[in-house]
Design goal:
Elements: E1 4-10, E2 13-27, E3 30-34, E4 41-54, E5 61-74, E6 77-81, E7 85-87, H1 93-113, H2 116-136
Parallel strand pairs: 1-6
Antiparallel strand pairs: 1-2, 2-3, 2-4, 4-5, 5-6, 5-7
Helix pairs in contact: 1-2
Length: 139
């Protein structure tokens, strides 16, 4: 088989399901490029973008914002299970910008109050918003 099936699954169901020649994802240990006929692999994902080079056209690339999760590769099926994920075309940029501003404000407030837990939550929220904005830029 010269391609893989890619499925991105969230608690809301399957948000992406296509065939691909190549997938690039960011794991907690670094970037991982996937090609057809890879050995079985399981990896923890970071909050980052997922790049999928589709089989219908060499230049057709889908970008997906993934907020952490797990990737499993087996028998040319790549399954990504994440808390949330959005394709570039589905990202509401205005909403992502509001989330970014809100997270920046919460981070600043947490730093003033020296609230380490609130600062960590705000940093994660900021990272997610920035990731969504970066992915939306691929449209």
């Amino acid at each position: 088989m010269d391609y893989m099936t890619v499925q991105v699954i969230t608690p809301n169901g399957i948000c992406y399901d296509h065939h691909a020649y190549f997938i690039l994802l960011s794991t907690v240990d670094g970037e991982l490029g996937l090609l057809p006929n890879m050995i079985p692999t399981i990896a923890s994902l970071k909050i980052d973008e997922l790049k999928v080079r589709r089989i219908d056209d060499e230049k057709h690339v889908d970008w997906i914002s993934v907020n952490g999760g797990i990737a499993e590769v087996r028998d040319n099926l790549v399954t990504i299970v994440a808390d949330s994920a959005e394709r570039d075309r589905d990202i509401d940029v205005t909403r992502a910008e509001r989330a970014k501003r809100r997270a920046e404000s919460e981070l600043q407030e947490a730093e003033i109050k020296r609230d380490v837990d609130a600062a960590k939550r705000a940093e994660v929220a900021l990272h997610r918003a920035l990731n969504r904005l970066r992915v939306s830029g691929h449209r």
